[in-house]
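Quick one, T. Sequence first:
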Amino acid sequence: MSSKALIDSAVFNSTTSGRKGIADQLFAHWFSRLVYAQIWEDPQSDLDALALKPGANILTISSGGCNALAYLSANPAAVHAVDLNAAHLAMLNMKQMAIKHLPDYDAVLAYLGDANQSDNIKRYKRHIREHLSDDASNFWESRSISGQPRYHYFAHQAYQHGLLGNFIGLAHYFVRMMGGNLSKVLEANNLQEQQTYFDQYVAPAFETRLFKLLAQQPLALYSLGIPPSQFEALKHDAKEGLHTLFKERMRHLCCDFPLDENCFAQQALGRRYDTSKQKALPLYLQQQHFDALRSNIDRLHPHHMTLTQFLQKQPRESMDAYLFLDAQDWMDEQQLTALWEEVTRTAAPHAKVVFRTGGETSPLEQKLPASILSLWHTDTEKNRALYATDRSAIYGGMHLYTKI
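Structure tokens:
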């Protein structure tokens, strides 16, 4: 099934009608291209929540692929990475083959970490090209708007590409237009200075009349991967206006964690990874995990289908961990129930599910039948504590459910 058909099936549901129906169609069209060159959920928070034992079977959504690769550090039996969008699976395959076939860690860091060296064209042609899947090869060898094959992204700031990468670039331009400067926060030397620079160079942009207007437009947020249904959840939580909600989440990203330990802030504020600092890199690119990732790289399996379709093919009690990102925000009651029927059937004893939500609250208590919900346990206070550890800070909640 094509990416468009899969995305349509996910976005169009019982709530698709009227003005929302038009918005759903626009979002589905927008989301069918490369959205995320890197992922925006913190894998360290995931691993802390899951406390995986070696040999676990893991199901995750691929997105930009960073987290699926990070989970290999836990020595699982398998990581199954599902995505509706073939472009995301092409990105995952590129990263997987780079880790597997480039000569050493330094070459991997240059290719996937810096992702801005002319020698990366040679690395691609010599070590990666022949190992890509057919679908990934078709994606990377096809030409982008610039006229060059897409594999040239990795010689020209790979993470500034994709819809989210473009959005971040526009955000930098917007803040400068409003008299601020996102990149100035990176000059801070400690958490106190991060707060001071944020208040001086970033926060005022959120209070401008123009931003307040843009924050009310769902279309303006499509490049963040926020569908119309999730936008409604954001509005519900925005007691003081969406501009204030977005400002506080940006404050969490910029101010609550040391910058040299936050790869998400490095991308949001600097539009690159700081390859000179190991803790500032995504977990999957840190040298301490390289040997484990390379040893386990063939345990990563991509699947172009929905989560429910994948689980319908799995044996009973065969999965230990599920990571759903924010996909459930897209689902109506019927879709969510169908998914959790399969999650409950395939869950091994004490299996765990981790996901994010655009709003603060989990949708499960309102949408799942009691017969399913009674088989799972969650702890609201623990969920809040987990959320506080997620350095990406773009969501309203992080939730952990454990099979009873």
